[in-house]
Amino acid sequence: MAKRIHIFLLIVYLLSKSKAQSPQSNKNITPGSTLNTNSTPNFWLSASGRFAFGFYPSGNGFRVGIWIVGSSSPTNNTIVVWTARREDPVVSSGAALQFSVDGSRVLLRNSNDEVQSIAELNKSAVAASMLDSGNFVLYDSGPRIVWASFDQPTDTLLVGQKLSQNTALRSSTSLTNQSQRPQDGCKLNFPTGDDCLEDQGSNIYNISHLEKIYWEPDEYELINLIPDEEACSNACLGDCNCVVATYDDPVCYKLKLPLRFGMKNDSSGIKSLVKVRIGGFPKARDRIVNKKVGKEFLVVGIVLIAFSLIVLTFALYILCAHHKWSYGIIPWRASPPDVVQEISLRSFSYEQLVSATENFKEEIGRGGSGRVFKGYINGGKEIAVKKLIKLVEEGEMEFRNEMKIIGRTHHKNLVHLVGFCSEGSNRLLVYEFMKNGSLGDLLFKSEERVNWSERRRIALEIANGLHYLHDECETRIIHCDIKPQNILMDESRTAKISDFGLSKLLKPDQTRTYTMARGTRGYAAPEWYNNNAPITSKADVYSFGVMLLEIICCRKKVDASLRDEEVVLVDWVYQCYRAGELQLLKSEELDASMEEFEKMVKIGLWCVEPELSLRPAMKQVISMMEGIVVTPPPLSYSSVRG
Q: How far apart are CA 594 and CA 591, in angstroms?
C-alpha cells in the first residue's frame, strides 16, 4: 500500500512539474487575438509584468517590439530590447497586430489594410506567450516552441539569450529610432600611400596615445626589444604604411587594418599609438601632383615587378623540386591555400613558436599524431602548441582537417584554435591553454572526487558541444574520437571538445559517410567495424554514451583488476540495470539521488544501443538530461565490444 501511495505521489509531482513548465503557466495568447494602436492596453504582458510585446510609440507613429515595462503604458523613452521589421517605416494610428486564426502567422496590418508578417511558421501554433525572460514565443500542441524572438536578435541580448551562428547584433540609429544603423565598420578616408610618394610621412603626422586599449592581435610587423614607447612611435611614424601601433613592453606591434575587437583593460600596460595628420588633409592640387609623380614611378615599378616575378617563379620551381626530392613525400607548401581561403587564423612563424615554447621545453600532452607543449605569447598569454610529428600524407591531412574544422567553429564547449604554423616541413597548431588538463585526468587521476552536480554539468556541456557539431554548425561534423582524453577543462572547469584530427566534414545535404575505421577501441561504435555500415553522427553518440557511464560510475570503461563480470563497464552497467541493482554502480560518496542516477544510467544505455536506428541523436540526449522529455527504459542490450 505504501509503495502505491509513493508511486501516486510521484505521478502527481511529475504532472505538476510538467504543467509548471508548459505555456499554460504563463499568460497565454490564443489564435485570433488582436492588438490595436488605439486600444488600451495595446500590448501583451509577461506573467510577472516585467516585459511587454506589442505597439510602442516611435517618432510620429508606432512600431512592434518588446520592451522593459517601466510604467503603465509605453512612451518614447521606453527601453526597447527587440523590434520587428526594423527597416520598415513606422505605422500610423489604427494599425492592428493579430495572431492569425489558423495559428500560422503573427501579422501587422497598417491603417491602409496592407499586411506584413512579424512571424511566419511552417506549422500551426496553438498559443503564444510573452515570457518573463523577455522572449516572445509561439507554441505548438506539444507544447514545443516553434518560433521565438530570441532566435531573431536585433540590438540587444537578454539573460539566457544566445547569439547563434549566422545571426548578428546591429546597433540602432538612436535611442528613439530602432532602425538599423547604416553600416559605416571604421575606414581611412585617404590613402596612406600618398605620404610614401611625398617622402614626408614622419613630418606630417603626430602620434596620439590611447592608454590601456587592447586590439585583437593581427600585426603585419613585430619589433622585439623596443626600449620605450617613444621608439615604437618613431617606428610607426617612419613607416608610411603604419596607421596604428601598440606598445607592450618590450614589443612594438604594427597593426593591420581594419582594427578589430577593441577593448579597454585597466590592468593592462598596453598602449595604442595612432597616427594623426597635422593640419588636415592635403589639397586636391597637391594630390594631382602626387598622381603625376606616381605614374612615373608606376612604369618603372611594373617593369621591375615583371622581372622579379620571372625570377621568383623560377626560384620557387627549383625550391619545390628540391623539397619533394629531399623528403621523398608529398610536397609541403608554405601554407595550404584551400585551408587559408576558408578560415581566418593567425599565422605564426616557426621561430615565433620556438621562442614562445622556449624550444618546446614543457610537454603537457601527447597523442598518436603529435605532442603538445606549453607556451606564451603577447606578453604572457598562455597557449598550447601541438606539434605534428608525422611527416607523411596522413599527417598533412590531419593538420588540414583540424584547421578547417576548428577554424570555422565557434562554441563555448569547443577548444578555440588561435593560429597555426605551416613552414617548410613544420606543421603546428596553436590553441587556447586549458589549465585543468583533460577530463580523463580529472576523473581518473585527480585526488579530489568530483561531485555529482559537477559531473552532470560536464556531461551536459559535452553534449551541447556535440549537438553544435552535428546540427548547428554551418558544415556538419562527426568528431569520430570522443573520449575523456579529448575533453579539456579550462580554468573554471568548463568542458571543451578538442582534437579534431580524425573528424569528418559532411556536405550540406549529407547525413552519412563511408570511411575507414577511426577512433579509440572501447569508445568506437559497432558500425565502425561493419564494412557495409554508413557512419553518421550517431557514432559520436555511442562514444558519448561510454564516456557518460564513466563519468557517472566513477571508473574507466575497462578495468582488468575487477571481477570478470565487472571488467567491461558497459556490460556491467546493463547487467546491474536489468537486475535492479544500480546501487552496485553508485559510488558511496557520490551525492546523487537514486532517481537522478538511474535516469543518467538509462541515457547512457540508450546512447550505446548497438542498433543505429534506435540510438538517439544528441538533441534528444540533451532533452532527456535536462528533463524536458521522460527517459524511457532502454531496450534489450546485446554486448558488442569494440
A: 10
